[in-house]
Design brief:
By secondary structure, the protein is of the alpha/beta class. Helix content is about 20%, strand content about 25%. A nine-stranded mixed sheet has the order 2-1-3-4-11-10-9-6-7, with helices on both faces. It has a two-stranded antiparallel sheet with strand order 5-8.
């Protein structure tokens, strides 16, 4: 199985995402923002970083990159697509997920090991979790506050589109403690925390109280493998 990882100017975590893909047992395929070729991949990851320097709005310019034409077409056809942090912002700006992401309510960049609760396990990227499971995934962002109007929030909640919620602490003022979303079909997932940084013991959150949390992020990529093989 081949999972493409798209690099935009300013991407920081593309190599980490490629490593996470390989850790899960798939082939990582490097894709370039200026191309129109997905190279026959089975799934896609839009990684974290500061694409185009976060000019205009975080993810706004990247959402208009040449390769996004193919990303939208692939997503509409049912291909699994994961947007991590800046990748989540790109998915929202490309209207593949609802709502918007703005500056953290405290106005500062935040970095911490974040507890989140899995709300939806019926997606290509979360099927390896259990509903209500609490996991620990690193978070690092300045523009992670999720917002939406009341009508959109009602639709998100009513249709079960919340994939993850912050637990214990809302780090950025996101409405309804939303840490990540999915689309109705379940093939697209976006979240602010970074699962690619929690795929190997010793290189992710790893404490006496939660020794297994160092690999919570690996489940995302293993879930995608199962989803593609089951399709």
């Amino acid at each position: 199985m081949r999972i493409g990882v798209i690099t935009f100017p300013g991407s920081l975590d593309d190599r980490d995402a490629q490593r996470a893909v390989r850790r899960a047992g798939a082939e990582a395929v490097a894709l370039w923002h200026a191309d129109h070729d997905l190279r026959g991949v089975d799934a896609l990851v839009l990684p974290g970083g500061f694409s185009y320097g976060d000019y205009l709005r975080a993810g706004a310019i990247a959402a208009m990159a040449p390769i996004m034409t193919e990303v939208v077409q692939a997503a509409d056809s049912g291909m699994p697509v994961l947007g991590i942090c800046n990748g989540f912002q790109v998915l929202v700006e490309a209207h593949l997920l609802p709502g918007g992401l703005i500056r953290n309510d405290h106005g500062s960049f935040i970095r911490r090991d974040q507890h989140i609760v899995v709300e939806n396990v019926d997606t290509a990227w979360t099927n390896g979790f259990v509903t209500g499971q609490e996991i620990v995934i690193p978070i690092k962002n300045a523009d992670g506050g999720f917002i939406a109007d009341e009508e959109t929030l009602k639709r998100i909640e009513g249709e079960g589109l919340v994939a993850f919620r912050y637990a214990g602490l809302n780090p950025n003022g996101s409405f309804h403690d939303i840490a990540g979303l999915t689309n109705e079909r379940g093939n697209i997932v976006g979240l602010m925390p970074h699962p690619e940084h929690a795929t190997e013991p010793g290189f992710g959150p790893d404490t006496d109280e939660r020794m297994r949390s160092g690999v919570d992020g690996l489940v995302f990529f293993e879930s995608a493998l199962r989803a593609v093989l089951a399709a």
